[in-house]
Design brief:
The protein is an alpha/beta fold. The protein has one domain: Aconitase, domain 4, CATH 3.20.19. 33% of the residues lie in helices and 16% in strands. The chain contains eight helices and seven strands. It has a seven-stranded mixed beta sheet. A hairpin with a 4-residue loop joins β5 and β6 (148-150).
Length: 201
């Protein structure tokens, strides 16, 4: 998993409430267990018309937001079914950070396990950030070390994050990777246990 430290990137505003995982990655793209290639299905029904042509008005199809790495979303982002393909699709498309007033719990947890930083900010802050992104100057800085988002105007918004999850993102480690950082301690425990409870053979 790629570490997340500091991101200076284009932010795309998508301030729509209750975007669910089926909107993030529709069911027809779930036949694979591969993490690559899912970006083409991201927001498919929002990005494309019935003929498969890009909708020019959709934010991620606009030239200004090509290559966006940050998404500024509405409340309850990632609700619906608990498909892990949703963060996979975001990551494959290049979106490494989602800022929203609130997230669905399972989606929120899945983001951390897939190298995506979900940031919770008050609705007023998200509205302000979305307005600035939509105004044409869409370069933002997300600093995980400082737990801050800096808008194009220079205004700084701070956010909270669990220290363990912060460490996982900074180090680029999933749950298995975090466990393996204690491999020596685990081995020492197993050796001690075999010695003290030899009768369990």
């Amino acid at each position: 998993m790629k570490p997340f430290t500091r991101l200076h990137a284009v932010a795309a505003p998508l301030p729509i409430a209750n975007i669910d995982t089926d909107q993030i990655i529709p069911k027809q793209f779930l036949a694979t267990v591969e993490r690559t290639g899912l970006g083409r299905g991201l927001f498919y029904d929002l990005r494309f018309d019935g003929e498969g042509n890009p909708k020019p008005d959709f934010v991620l199809n606009r030239p200004t937001f090509q290559g966006a790495n940050i998404l500024i979303a509405g409340p309850n982002f990632g609700c619906g079914s608990s498909r892990e393909h949703a963060p996979w699709a975001l990551d494959d498309f290049g979106l490494r950070c989602v800022i929203a007033p609130s997230f669905a719990d399972i989606f929120f947890n899945n983001c951390f396990n897939n190298g995506i930083l979900p940031i919770v900010l008050p609705q007023e802050a998200c509205d302000e950030l979305a307005d600035q992104a939509g105004g044409g100057n869409s370069l933002f800085t997300v600093d995980l070390y400082a737990q801050s988002v800096t808008s194009p105007s220079g205004k700084v918004f701070t956010f909270e994050i669990d220290p363990g999850r912060k460490l996982k993102l900074l180090e680029g480690l999933d749950d298995i990777g975090m466990t393996l950082t204690r491999a020596d301690d685990i081995s020492a425990y197993e050796q001690r246990r075999r010695y003290l409870t030899a009768w369990l053979k």
